[in-house]
Write a structure and sequence with these properties.
52% helix; 130 residues; single chain; disordered N terminus; three-stranded mixed β-sheet; GMP Synthetase, Chain A, domain 3
Amino acid sequence: MLHRSTGKHAILILNHEMTTHVVMDMAREFDQEFVEYVVRAIVNHPDDVKTERIVDERGVLITLFINQEDMGYVIGRQGQTARAIRTLLKIVGAKSNARVNLKIYEPEGSRPARAETPAEDTTSVDDLGI
């Protein structure tokens, strides 16, 4: 009798794992499609929008690849647009008990180097002799 009980328990676990797998597949499709849908709606080159999804023990990481010219549209002023997309994506993931994060891929050397600000001229203040 113990053997049968253990066998049924194993079947329940198997069914739970299969259900979890199905839910994760549905979540994969939805979270990845969600990011692509939102980003395609705000960029000038929607055909260049691609995503890559990686699942590990820490959760789901969606890497977003876009045309370099669209980077400003996706990031937004002070990162507000990217932050909003990430917030919505976390809510989408929470509905399926998944921790979902978004990484916006930026190729090496794509951002121009920041110009150093010249040292402030203090000669007129120094001449005051104060």
